[in-house]
Amino acid sequence: MSMPDPQTKRDRLHPSLACRAGLLATALLCCSTGCSFVAVTAPPPDHAERVYFDCTTSKIAPIADLLGAGLFAASAAVPATSDSSYNQGDRISTMALLLGLTAVELAAAIQGWRATDRCVSAKQGLARRIEQQHSLAEQAAGCRVDIECKGERLCVAGACVDPPTPVAATLAPSPAAGAPPPSAAEPAPVTPAPQP
């Protein structure tokens, strides 16, 4: 009877240990997957009625999730195309785990992207509401200076009013051409009053 060569036995265990180490590393990475599930805050459902709210507008977490999905998908392709002596069961379980993590990362990226888009839209709506409230408050307070009124209007006692229309001056008809103005003309002769 021949004894099995220890080197051959170690070579047979090596792929299984490598696969287990890979699974352990992948399991540790699972703790860091789905950044968007944890780091992205969507706007509250009643954001249109609130005077203030906070949510996530940054796309960093969804982008990290997309990168993670790409890495997991690429890692899943390695055992699928490998001609090494991996155990067929280990190869399938590794691929299944990596593809599952790819799906989790993609779901997190999609959820995070949608939540950040909704947040941007909700914050723009909040900014418009605040601007409208300021405009209404200014209108209620009235004007302070003419420049706050539109066009040629004037600010009078806190209200914008149209300027007064010029009153047409009723002047005597203008003298004939070449005649001196009435102030420069000779005084009218004084006639003595008749005596009784």
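Above is the first protein from milestone M3; the second protein from the same milestone is given next.
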Amino acid sequence: MVSFKCPNCTYSTLQFKRLLCYLEYAHASDASFIVCCGIDNCFKKYKVVQSYRKHIQRKHPGFYSENVISNRTVNLTNHSNVEIQCEAPIEISSYDLECGEEILPNVQYNNDHPIAASKLRFAKFLLKLLEEKKMKKNVIKEITNEMRYQLSTCIESIQERLKENWVSSSDYCPEIANQIVSPMMELIEICESLETEHQQDNYVMDHFQVVSPVQVSLELHNHTHIQSYQYVPIANSLKQLLLYHDVLAEVLRGHKSKDGLLRDYCDGLAFKEHSLFPKEGLNLELQLYIDDFQTTNPIGNKTALHKTTAIYFVLGNISPQF
């Protein structure tokens, strides 16, 4: 069965509309994102999903009305050369195609409800500001407040213009005017629902299935205070990681060298002779690292008292290029 394939990962779907939504929510924020049209041998490239959608609407109206406006599955009778392309071809296993209908494995995604989809996108935008752009939480709150204010001002302006330009002032219908501005009112509700830090944290925990750290107490002798450390459960982290089809495909496929060259730890003699990693079968390879760091002034006199030790892992089943 023919399907549409994502150019940046192993996601696949039978509906082109779902692919556009997936590109918007999964890859639109990637700096290296690029998509090639591929419809009827069209090789136009775009870095913005909305621009790509408009291109299809203008240049390929038949395909757009058949596969974007309608909710039917892919029909390639009249469009035999449809393939979303990228700069480098991606190898897709049969497992990826079988599991292709799930959009984001660790995000509750519902394309049938625009409000929920918009709220999910806005929450992802706030997370990007916080984690990638390193913005402070009070700055993010000011951004949401300003967005809400601008939307409210815009709604009032539209309502006034509708009232002024109505065919007859006596026939002015506030209900119709409210329906016109209802999408912006819904955006205001989204901003209000994600305004505070508490609201944002609750939404992230409910919809992104974050693996939260747990505090483990240590019973140490000759210590008056209870000692503890923070632990992010490895098993839960692996479960979330393996929900991604591209990660699971890497684990199932393996990347051991077949030509005798050393490319990763799994190609070395220590790995091959280890009792936990037999020649046949599937094992999860966890490589542990440990680092000491300090959050105080490194040239101060309290550095030894506030040193923190971090132990973290990487999944060795994934190719080193990733």
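Note on the second protein: The longest helix spans residues 137-164.
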